[in-house]
Amino acid sequence: MSLTLQPVRVNTGFEEEGVLVFDEHQRLVVVLVHLSGRNEIAPGQWFLEAGFGPLGGVTPPPFADLDAAQDWISQCLARRALSSSALP
Predict the structure, then answer these.
(1) What φ, ψ does residue 82 adopt, rounded to 5°?
(2) Quick one: which H or E segment has residue 13?
(3) Are 38 and 25 in contact, with CB atoms under 8 Å apart?
(4) What is the distance between the alpha carbons of residues 67 and 11, in angstroms, rounded to a whole number?
(5) For every one of its 88 residues, what pLDDT tens digit does the chain have, with 9 covering 90 and above?
């Protein structure tokens, strides 16, 4: 699964660093936010701020880094593709 990342600033109240994640068809699937060191729950980790399509409504735990987030996104999209291809 090929993903494309585009840096973006996300207004979460702390002006967080963020990344738009596009799938291999250039569809936006996820907005990730790099949590600031001031975050009380998971400082410095990556958080799924918004998911779209098969990743909509999903709330995974924060990711240690972008590689971990991309791995998780790719796995979810691959599972979704497999289940869709199994339908008659």
Answers:
(1) -65, -45
(2) none
(3) no
(4) 23
(5) 799 999 999 988 776 799 999 999 999 999 999 988 888 888 899 999 999 998 999 989 999 999 999 999 999 998 876 565 544 5
The tally of domains found in the chain comes to 1
Strand 28-34's sheet: what is its strand order? 4-10, 16-22, 28-34, 46-51
Domain of 71, in residue numbers: 4-85
Q: Which residues have CB under 8 Å from 63's CB, separation 6+?
A: 32, 45, 46, 47, 48, 69, 72
9-12-16-20 Cα dihedral, nearest 10 degrees: -50
What one-letter code names the amino acid at 88? P
80: phi then psi, degrees, rounded to nearest 5: -65, -40
